[in-house]
Structure formats: structure tokens, C-alpha cells
Amino acid sequence: EKNMKNSSIFIFAALLGFVCASIDRRLEEDKKLRDIFSDMLNNTINDIVQSMSDPLKIKDISIKFKDSELLSGGANVTKVSLLGISSLVAPFIKVDILGLKLSMEILLPDILLAFDYWLDILIADVLPFYGSGTNTVTLDNISLNVTGRVNMTGGMHVQNLTVVLQIEKANFNLNGLIDNPEFNSLLNTILNDNFCDFIRDSSELISSLLSSIVENVINSALKPKNDLIETSLKNIALADRRLR
């Protein structure tokens, strides 16, 4: 009876050791997978940023309003540039291997938008609205909080992304509207005081616009990397089989 009891203890200890070793291998494998996905997403974001010039030049915009009782005239926006893109970082990327859920934070410390404009329109055939000048808009501490899923079917890609935009501070410096400095000063004050609140209050609408754009940009950059991802996953699977 004593020998049987000792044998049972030995078998239980052996089984427990086997289970613990299997769990350790699985945890190590999951960590390697998380690292692969996180590193690949981080490298992809870095590649996207590095592919952009800083300042980023944006094409001129010309708008012609069809003559109507509501609005007539035209507007031009030229010399548009975005300075600060190169400072974009993704300090937090987490991939839940079990559910392939993605959480990511993208930070942009500050960005400067500069542009020239010319405007000459008539509102309701009564109210003229015109002006021209050089303008700047500074946005501080921009963050994009991204959640979604990672899908490996047909190559690694992200899907069902939800992007929430937050801006801590905005500084508008608009000039030349209706040739009235006092009006421009008042408009700048209103925008500076309310723009960030507007972004927060309109988060659902802005998210619906941004989410598909961010998803398409990330997936386009991920596509050429799928061969490397597949090789890394095969190496992990091969190493796991050898351990067994």
C-alpha cells in the first residue's frame, strides 16, 4: 500500500511537471508571437512615417462655388505644409494572442499646419465673405488610441479598427478675413478656446472618418511584410516541435 501511495505521488508529480512545462512553453510561444506582431506593427508605423517628407507638402486646393442663391464665388488654398510628422511615435502596442485583439497608442507631440488662402464668396446674394493671407495652426499633444483585431487569414492585416483622436491644445493664427484684424482676433480666440472641445464632442463622427483611413494605411504598409511574418511564425512552430 505504501509503495502504491509513493507511486501515485510520483505519477502525480510527473504529470504536474509535464503540465507546468507545457504551460511554460505555451507562455513562451505566446510571448514570441506577441513580440513578432508588436514589432512588425511598430516597424510598419515607422516605415510609414519615414516615407513621408517633413514638412509634408499638400497639393493646392481650388474651389469654385456654382452661382446660386445660397453661395457663389470661389476659394484657393495654397502652399499647404504640415510640419512635425517625423516626431510621430507608437509607445504602446499590445496584441492579445488568444483573441488577436489589438490595442495601440500613437502620439504626435506637436504639429504645425501652414497655408495661404484667397477667398471671395457671396452668401445668400447678400453677405460678402472674402480675404487672403498666410495662416498657421499649431496642435499640441495629439494622440490616436487604436483598438481592433489582427487577422492572419490571407496574410497579417488589421481589421475593425476604432480610432479615437485627442488633442490637448490648439493655437489658431488666422489672418486677412474681411480685412478686419479685430474680427480675425475674435475668431482665433473662439477657435483656440473651443476647438479641442469640439474634437472631443465629435469623437464618434471623427472616429468613423479616421478609422478606415488608418486601417487602409497600416494594411497597405503591412502587405509587403507578410512573407517575413510567415517565416517567423514557421520558425517558432519548428522550435516548439523540437522542444517537444
UniProtKB/TrEMBL annotation:
Domain of life assignment: Eukaryota
GO cellular component: extracellular space
One Pfam family per UniProt: JHBP
Signal peptide from the UniProt entry: none
Name the UniProt record assigns to this protein: Lipid-binding serum glycoprotein N-terminal domain-containing protein
Species, as recorded: Pectinophora gossypiella
